[in-house]
Amino acid sequence: MATVSRILNDLTGYSEGTRQRVEKVMKDLDYSPNAIARGLANKQTSTIGVLLPSVSSRFAAKLLQGIETASHSLKHSVIVCNTHSNGERTMEYLQVLKEKRIEGLIFISEWLKDEYVEVIKKMGAPVVLVSTMSPKYRFPYVKVDDKQAAYDAVCYLIKKGHRKIGLISGSRYDQIAGLPRIEGYKAALTEYGIPVKEELIAYGDFHFKSGAAGCEELFERDPDLTAFFVTSDEMAIGAISCAYRRGKRIPEDLSIIGFDDTEDAEMTVPPLTTVHQPVEDIGKIAAELLIHKRGFDESVIMPHRIVERETVGTL
Questions:
Q1: What share of the chain is helix, strand, coil (3-state, %, to 5)?
Q2: What is the CATH number of the domain that holds 286?
Q3: Are residues 150 and 140 both part of a single domain?
Q4: Shared domain check, 257 and 194
Q5: End-to-end alpha-carbon separation of the chain, Å?
Q6: Is residue 312 included in any domain, yes or no?
Q7: pLDDT at site 225
Q8: Are residues 151 and 210 part of one domain?
Q9: Which domain, by its residues, includes 264?
Q10: For residue range 222-232, what is the model confidence (pLDDT) as tens digits?
């Protein structure tokens, strides 16, 4: 039994012939190790959990691709849990992951509530936050500077000659990607002496339909707007669709800049100018931080940049 165990765990202390005989018997019996039993025995499951609000968006797909790539290279498996848009399943899935004895947790794009932290602490596993952060709890995070990125996007529009700029944002109550990007938008306008008007801000949920609805809403309030800053590529595509239905040419009549630089941004007609954040790399770094357990004080602010395509014109 000891020799077989050493071979299964890739340890030393046996001959090549013995290894081949054991592997032949395993093949003949169609035997595979029981990961659950092994995890209970050595208290290591080599599994991490991922909590995120949506698994269907391009952003989520890229992020998960990065997490999976890094985890696989470090011989870990991943359990993905969709907490839904308002986090209504978060507590339920935290309990499930606790029972699965995960070795770490990646917590994505949701505000870290006290009730979540209570369960996380009981897990006794390291946590890395992605596209979110917590001033109250000192968990490491990996994200871009959302306020600065939004500021840069609006400054880009202003430097192109635009002064009547609408904002299609996530929820004003979203402290992760909503409020910081709204603050960046307002800071850029103020910097250039452009009045901030609350009526030129429409709120959505980062998805296509809310982008189209936000575009309609803003044009009803001010038909003379020349540019939109839209805080996700998916919403920006919704705004492009709305502009098309209204007979507005892009970028001749209306300029639009998005946020994320997903594959969708390259596939729109015309291709979308947007703020690039390295989504796949964010996922990779988060998984590496978690699995290597580098410590609870190490956080990473990832770089962003404007990717110029064809949806922003110069006045």
A1: 45, 15, 40
A2: 3.40.50.2300
A3: no
A4: yes
A5: 78
A6: no
A7: 98
A8: yes
A9: 146-277
A10: 999 999 999 99
* 265, 156: one domain: yes
- Kindly give, in sequence order, each residue whose CB lies less than 8 Å from that of residue 178, ignoring residues fewer than 6 positions away: 169, 170, 171, 172, 203, 231
pLDDT value, residue 199:
97
Do residues 139 and 284 share a domain? yes
Question: Rounded CA gap, 134 and 122, in Å?
Answer: 18
Contact indicator for 23, 173 with CB cutoff of 8 Å:
no
Q: How many helices (H) does the chain have, and how many strands (E)? A: 12, 12
Q: Which H helix or E strand runs over 283? A: helix 279-292
Tokens of 291: 């699995």
Integer Cα distance of 127 and 315 in angstroms:
47
Phi/psi of residue 176, each to 5°? -95, -70
Number of domains in the chain: 3
For 255, residues 6+ apart whose C-beta sits below 8 A from its C-beta are 157, 160, 162, 226, 227, 228, 273, 311, 312, 313
Tokens encoding 68:
């999976």
Please list the rounded mean pLDDT of every run of 10 residues in the chain (315 residues): 84 89 88 61 78 80 95 94 77 90 91 90 90 88 96 98 97 87 98 97 94 98 97 96 96 97 93 97 95 75 97 96
**61 and 170 part of one domain:** no
DSSP letters for 13-63: SS-HHHHHHHHHHHHHHT----HHHHHHHHT---EEEEEES-SSSHHHHHH
Structure tokens at 214: 């936000």
pTM above 0.85, yes or no: no
159: number of Cβ within 10 Å: 10
**Does the residue 315 lie in any domain?**
no
